[in-house]
Design goal:
The complex is a heterodimer. Chain A is mainly alpha-helical. Chain A has one domain (about 5-115, about 150-295): MetI-like fold (Orthogonal Bundle). Helix content of chain A is about 75%, strand content about 0%. Chain A has helices spanning about 5-45, 45-50, 65-95, 100-115, 115-140, 155-175, 180-190, 195-205, 205-225, 225-230, 250-255, 265-295, and strands at about 55, 60. In chain A, strands 1-2 form a two-stranded antiparallel ribbon. In chain A, helix 6 runs antiparallel to helix 10. The model of chain A has no long low-confidence stretch (mean pLDDT about 90). By secondary structure, chain B is mostly helical. Chain B has one domain: MetI-like fold (Orthogonal Bundle). The radius of gyration of chain B is 23 Å and the shape is globular. Classes of the chains: A mainly alpha, B mainly alpha. Chains A and B meet through helix 1, helix 3, helix 4, helix 5 and helix 6 of A and helix 1, helix 3, helix 4, helix 5 and helix 7 of B.
Chain lengths: ~300, ~280
C-alpha cells in the first residue's frame, strides 16, 4: 500500500471519530423518542404534559407536577446562585488581589469537580436538618405535617445553587475579562469610581456573556438528578410552597426506572423526551446569546 | 443621598463578601464530609468487602470496580475524542461540516446524564444485550464514554491548536507526510495538554451516577470481566445513603464521600501540575 492510500485511510478514520458526537446525539434522540412516543400518542401530548396525576400502577401518567417541580427548583437555584456567582466573578476579575485569586480559583474548580452525590449527602444531612428545624420551630402552626420534614423546594434550590456556582462564576468572569481595556480606562479617566465603572460599563458590556452563564447554569440545574433526589422528597404533587416536597423530571426517571415495567417504562422515556426538548431549546438560546455577544464585542 | 465614595465602599465590601462566601461554602461542604467521613475511613474500610448492603464492612470491590470502569470508559472515549480533535484542527477549514460536528459536540455536552442513562439502557442494556450481557461494566462504560466525549474533543482541540504552525511547516518541509507530521510532531507537542483533558475527564467519570444507575447494574461483588455488573463509588454512596439509609449506613456513605473528594482533589492537582509543565514548555 503506498503512503497516499494510507493517508486517505487515516483521514477517513479521523473523520468518523469527528462524527461520533453527531451520531450519538441522533441515536440518543432516536432511542428516547422511539421508546417514549407510545405513551404520548396513547395519552395525548396535552394530557401528558398538563395531567396533574401520576399513578403508574393505574396507568395514569401526567407529568405536570414534575414540570412545575423542575422549574421551581431551577428558578430557586438561579435566585440564590446567580447573584453570588456574578458578584464572585466581578470580584475575581476586578478587585481580588492575585493572592486571593489563587485561593478562590482552585476552590471553584474543586467545587465543580465534586460528585453530585456528595452534594446530595451534604444536603440530606445538613441543609435538610436546618430547614426541618426552622419548619418545626417557627412555622409549625402554619405548615402541613408533611411539609415539616426538611425535604423541600427550598433545600433542592440551595443545593442546586451551590452546584451551578462554578458554571456561573467561570463564564461570567471570562465575559468580564474580555471587555476591552479601553472601555474601563475611558470610564475611569472621566472620573467614574471603580464601582460606577463596573456597573455602568463593564457589566453592561459583558451582559451577553453573563446571560449565557446564567442560561448554562440553568441547564445544569434542570439536568441535575442525584443531588435533587436526595434532598427534594420526591412527592409527585404540584408544589404550593417553598417548604413543599417536590419531584423533578430527572428525579421521576431515576427513581422509578429501577422497578418500572411495560407502559410505565415508556412513560419514563416520554419524561425523557420532555427533558431532552427543554434542554435543546435552552442550549440553542445559550448559543445564540453567546454568538450575539461575540459579534458585538 | 449616599455619597459616591460610600457607595463605592459598600459595593467593594459586598463583592469581597461574595468572593469569600464562595470559598466558605466550599469549605463547609468539603469540611463537613471529610470531618464525618475520615474517622470512618480506616484501612479496613478501604480493603474489606462490604457487608449487609454496605452498612458494614468496606468498599474494596467498589474501588476496584471504579478503577476498571474509569479505565474502560477512557479507553473507549480517548482515542475517539483525540481523533475528532485532530480531524477538526488539521484536516478541515471552518465550514458547514465543522459546524455540524461542533453543534453535535455542544448539544451532547448539554444533555442531562439521566437522558444518557435512558439511551444507554435502551441501546446497550436492552438492544445489545447478547453482546453486553445487559447491565454490565461494558454497558456503563459505553454510556459514560459518550458523556465525556465533548470534553475530550474540546480540550484536545485546544491543546493541538497551541502547537506552533512553524513545527508543522518544518516537518512538512523535511518531506514528512501529513500523517507523519501529526504523529511525530504535532501530537507529542500537544500531549501534556491532551493528558490534562483526559485527567479532568477521569473526575467526571468518577462523579457520574445517574446514567450508571440505569446501565451499570449496581452489584456489590468484585467484577470478574467487563460483562459483569458493578457499581462505582458515587453509586455506592447514593445507594447506601438513600436505599439502606440507617445511621450506620450514612456513616459509610460519608466515608465513601471522603474517598471521592480526596480522589477528585488529587486528580485536579495532577491536571494542574501537568498543565503548568506544558505552559512553561510551550513558552
Amino acid at each position: 500500500m503506498n503512503y497516499k492510500t494510507k493517508e486517505k485511510i487515516y483521514e477517513k478514520i479521523l473523520l468518523i471519530s469527528a462524527f461520533f458526537s453527531v451520531i450519538t446525539i441522533i441515536l440518543i434522540g432516536g432511542f428516547v423518542f422511539k421508546e417514549g412516543f407510545p405513551t404520548i400518542s396513547k395519552i395525548g401530548l396535552i394530557d401528558f404534559l398538563l395531567g396533574k396525576e401520576w399513578y403508574p400502577t393505574k396507568g395514569v401518567f401526567g407529568i405536570f407536577p414534575m414540570i412545575v417541580g423542575t422549574f421551581a427548583v431551577t428558578i430557586g437555584a438561579l435566585i440564590l446562585g446567580v447573584p453570588l456567582g456574578v458578584a464572585t466573578a466581578i470580584f475575581l476579575a476586578e478587585f481580588a488581589p492575585a493572592r486571593v485569586c489563587r485561593i478562590i480559583r482552585p476552590a471553584v474548580e474543586l467545587l465543580a469537580g465534586i460528585p453530585s452525590v456528595v452534594y446530595g449527602l451534604f444536603g440530606m444531612v445538613i441543609v435538610n436538618q436546618i430547614i426541618m428545624h426552622i419548619e418545626r420551630t417557627y412555622l409549625a402552626g402554619i405548615l402541613k405535617p408533611e411539609y415539616q420534614r426538611g425535604y423541600s423546594v427550598l433545600s433542592a434550590s440551595i443545593i442546586l445553587a451551590i452546584m451551578i456556582l462554578p458554571t456561573v462564576i467561570n463564564i461570567s468572569e471570562d465575559a468580564i475579562r474580555s471587555v476591552p481595556r479601553e472601555y474601563k480606562e475611558a470610564s475611569l479617566a472621566l472620573g467614574a469610581t471603580d464601582w460606577q465603572t463596573i456597573y455602568k460599563v463593564l457589566v453592561p458590556a459583558a451582559s451577553s456573556g453573563i446571560i449565557a452563564a446564567v442560561v448554562l447554569g440553568m441547564g445544569r440545574a434542570l439536568g441535575e438528578t442525584m443531588a435533587v433526589i436526595m434532598v427534594a422528597g420526591n412527592t409527585a404533587i404540584v408544589p404550593d410552597s417553598i417548604f413543599a416536597p417536590v419531584r423533578t423530571l430527572t428525579g421521576n426517571i431515576a427513581i422509578e426506572m429501577g422497578y418500572a415495567a411495560g407502559d410505565h417504562v415508556n412513560a419514563l422515556f416520554a419524561t425523557g423526551i420532555v427533558l431532552f426538548v427543554i434542554i435543546m431549546v435552552l442550549n440553542t438560546v445559550a448559543t445564540y446569546i453567546a454568538k450575539r455577544g461575540v459579534s458585538q464585542g | 443621598m449616599i455619597s459616591v465614595k460610600t457607595t463605592q465602599k459598600i459595593a467593594k465590601t459586598a463583592l469581597w463578601i461574595a468572593g469569600l462566601s464562595t470559598v466558605a461554602i466550599l469549605i463547609m461542604v468539603i469540611g463537613y464530609v471529610l470531618f464525618e467521613g475520615i474517622p470512618v475511613m480506616s484501612w479496613e474500610f478501604l480493603t474489606d468487602k462490604p457487608r449487609k448492603m454496605g452498612s458494614k464492612g468496606g468498599i474494596f470491590p467498589i474501588i476496584v470496580a471504579t478503577v476498571y470502569f474509569t479505565a474502560l470508559t477512557l479507553a473507549i472515549a480517548a482515542p475517539i475524542g483525540v481523533g475528532a480533535a485532530i480531524y477538526l484542527t488539521e484536516y478541515t477549514r471552518e465550514g458547514r461540516l465543522t459546524r455540524i460536528i461542533r453543534f453535535g459536540t455542544e448539544a451532547l455536552a448539554g444533555i442531562p446524564s439521566i437522558v444518557f442513562g435512558l439511551f444507554g439502557f435502551a441501546f446497550f442494556v436492552i438492544l445489545l444485550e447478547p453482546v453486553t450481557h445487559g447491565w454490565s461494566l461494558i454497558s456503563g462504560s459505553l454510556t459514560g464514554a459518550t458523556m465525556i466525549l465533548p470534553t475530550l474533543v474540546r480540550t484536545s482541540e485546544e491543546a493541538i491548536k497551541t502547537v506552533p504552525v512553524s513545527y508543522r511547516e518544518g516537518s512538512l518541509a523535511l518531506g514528512a507526510t501529513k500523517w507523519q507530521t501529526i504523529c511525530k510532531v504535532v501530537l507529542p507537542s500537544a500531549l501534556p495538554g491532551i493528558v490534562t483533558g483526559v485527567i479532568l475527564s477521569i473526575g467526571r467519570v468518577i462523579g457520574e451516577t445517574a446514567a450508571l444507575m440505569l446501565t451499570l447494574g449496581g452489584s456489590l461483588r468484585m467484577p470478574e470481566s467487563i460483562f459483569d455488573p458493578a457499581r462505582t463509588m458515587s453509586m455506592h454512596l447514593y445507594l447506601v445513603a438513600l436505599e439502606v439509609g440507617t445511621q450506620e449506613a450514612t456513616k459509610k456513605a460519608f466515608a465513601t464521600g471522603a474517598v471521592l473528594i480526596i480522589t477528585i482533589f488529587l486528580i485536579n492537582t495532577t491536571a494542574n501540575w501537568v498543565m503548568k509543565k506544558f505552559i512553561t514548555k510551550m513558552s
